[in-house]
Amino acid sequence: xxxxxxxxxxxxxxxxxxxxxxxxxxxxxxxxxxxxxxxxxxxxxxxxxxxxxxxxxxxxxxxxxxxxxxxxxxxxxxxxxxxxxxxxxxxxxxxxxxxxxxxxxxxxxxxxxxxxxxxxxxxxxxxxxxxxxxxxxxxxxxxxxxxxxxxxxxxxxxxxxxxxxxxxxxxxxxxxxxxxxxxxxxxxxxxxxxx
Length: 195
Fold this sequence. Notes:
Blueprint: H1 2-6, E1 10-17, E2 25-29, E3 36-43, E4 48-55, E5 58-63, E6 70-73, H2 80-85, H3 90-95, H4 97-100, E7 106-113, E8 116-126, H5 127-130, H6 136-139, E9 147-154, E10 160-166, E11 173-179
Antiparallel strand pairs: 1-2, 1-11, 2-3, 3-4, 4-5, 5-6, 7-8, 8-9, 9-10, 10-11
């Protein structure tokens, strides 16, 4: 999975989490640490249509009907936005997966993900290995299972097409979809901010 993720450093991304009501999508730039994102979408928890930019240590947000951006720290413990975007810092998410894999990684064959046929793999991972990369409100749940299932989809070019983390029936899942790996991307802080 690291190899498929690391081949190209920019992509289109769509994020879906059952812990938040919404599906933001947009461009991602993984060449920087931390990665930068320019996303938009309808997110009920944030009041409707929003634009989000993650640049450096900040998250910039605005209502899609408003021209005024606001800025918060990406690690702000009191911000629902900051908590949500923590799930997008993919290198951190992948860092400890290998250490927590319980049993073999299983090849499930060619399966459909996001209307495309892709190579599909599955691994059972000890929750302790990925706990720190989960949103705080999931980390704090008493019903968090001891293991979680990762389904990984690799496209015909060997690039990461997406993955789904199944956190059990009471918490449900997190899904990330990737396309357009390697396309030009430039993500900067909104005008008036220095990033």
